Amino acid sequence: xxxSVKELAAYFDHTLLRPxxxxxxxxxxxxxxxxxxxxxxxxxxxxxPQAVARLEDSAVEVCSVIGFPLGQHTQDIKARxxxxxxxxxxxxxxxxxxLDALLSxxxxxxxxxxxxxxxxxxxxxxxxxxxTCYLTDDLKRQACKLSVEAGAAFVKTSxxxxxxxxxxxxxxxxxxxxxxxxxxxASGGIRSCTDALALIEAGASRLGASASVSIVQDMAATxxx
Length: 225
Fold this sequence. Notes:
Elements: H1 5-9, E1 12-16, H2 23-36, E2 40-43, H3 48-54, E3 61-66, H4 75-87, E4 92-96, H5 99-104, H6 107-121, E5 125-129, H7 137-149, E6 154-156, H8 168-178, E7 183-187, H9 193-202, E8 206-209, H10 212-222
Parallel strand pairs: 1-2, 1-8, 2-3, 3-4, 4-5, 5-6, 6-7, 7-8
Helix pairs in contact: 4-6, 6-7, 7-8
């Protein structure tokens, strides 16, 4: 794949979502994102104000996770959490889908849950985390359809807390389902430039990773053979 290091870096949501994160790590995350030209930093809601302040003079935007990592918050709590994150400066919102409702065939609840977050997040864009490791292919397709119908901007594979992460097959399936212009975010288990390029080739328009720095450094050093 013919892509420069700078172009690859611009695909990344530089992610730090561990429960034991401290403020100095957020500062480092933001400094790395600005240095390497990542698209966003992705942080838990409590860190949004600090990340926004640290990135004020850069082109990097702040993404926050909502209903994370289980998706089992009530709809009103998810909407309020999203609204607060946007008010604090987040420009992208990654929400976790209601897996219980999806698995039970309750499509209306899934759609309403996403719609509530989309409306509460305006004008920030919303990515819907499907947690594909728990879904059949048919349910992945249904989740993509519901996300599009509800007004989201992206579908995303994984939280990184489930039993599996992004796969080539899932990205191809999701891209086929949502079409060429909707966002597809590969996240979970991306550790090398080879992984990253293969996922982009399969249809990913964004990559979520905590190993973003080592991935772009690897490509700069080796050309990612």
